[in-house]
Amino acid sequence: MSQESISPLRQRMLEDMSLRGFTPDTQRDYIRAVKKLASFLGRSPDTATVEDLRAFQLHLTATGVQPPTINATVTVLRFFFKVTLDRPETTRHLVFVYEPRKLPRVLSPEEVLRLLEAAPGPKHKAALSVAYGAGLRAMEVVALKVCDIDSKRMMLRVEQCRGRKDRFAMLSPQLLELLRDWWRIARPAVWMFPGRDRISPMTTRQLNRVCHIAAELASLPKWVAPHTLRHSFATHLLEQNIDIRVIQVLLEAETYCPPTPDRGADLLPVPSPVRRERAHSPPIRLP
Predict the structure, then answer these.
(1) How far apart are CA 88 and CA 80, in angstroms?
(2) DSSP secondary structure of 74-122
């Protein structure tokens, strides 16, 4: 998009977001939400009134938009009117919607094995194995570099993950051997899982597509995605009676595994060296 095609209003909002360090993806999401408001109004979004915004949220609810999307839109509009337009009172009727908490859907260890074995190639099998064996998000898997594999400390370095924080993830001997096998085949120079041009990393969309292909070949449900492996990683550790706080530390999540009716956090007394200054973590067995 050329500089001349950007309206002064959008340019000011972009500048406001840049000043606050918003990532390009976040900026695109914010702009998209404001454009939806403009489309609903049929005029410039800065002309919206209190009743216009209330009508817009009612429209979102009536058209079946899910609570997470509605809440994200409310956040965007509050930023737009408070920061960019300096009219915070305009959003006083916008409200956040309650989001029901649901237990994540997971695969059994046998189903994970079938999924990994059905991966269409060694690169894809290694990438999906990292998602499961280290509990990484899809964006963290594809951003993994060869230099992030620390075989001496048995850790994976995850740079600028969610919340723009660096962290370390567990690396089991089985996963390390699998990564070495892939490296011997392709000899990647920078990215552990390069894309088709071998210069850029594989995209999360490509990883999702590969996961869906493997799930179909393994006769697994259509809802299986790379993040399902992260949920499965946490659940399988929980089923091995690993302390729930240890799992939260491994995943860098504050509240990842809610207690279930038949198993609560008080039934997980197993100590872990993770609590002792984030030392080595007990390896999970990969298929």
Answers:
(1) 9
(2) HHHHHHIIIIISS-GGGGTT--PPP----PPP---HHHHHHHHHT-SSH
**DSSP state, residue 267:** G
Compute the distance between CA of residue 129 and CA of residue 117 in angstroms, rounded to an integer: 10
Q: Kindly report the CA angle at 261 between 260 and 263, in degrees rounded to 5?
A: 60
Give the closest residue to 141 by CA, choosing from 130, 154, 133, 150: 130
Cβ atoms of 151 and 176 within 8 Å: the answer is yes
Q: Which residues pair with 170 in a beta bridge?
A: 155
Average of per-residue pLDDT values in the chain: 85
pLDDT digits (tens, 9 = 90+) for 217-265: 999 999 999 999 999 999 999 888 888 888 887 887 654 444 444 433 3
**Residues 60-76: pLDDT tens digits?**
999 999 999 999 999 99
Contact 204, 142 (CB under 8 A): yes
State both tokens at 97.
């919607």
pLDDT at 280: 40
Backbone angles phi, psi at 248, to 5 degrees: -65, -40
Q: Is 154 left (phi over 0), alpha (psi -120 to 50) or beta?
A: left
Is residue 73 within 8 Å of 81, Cβ to Cβ? no
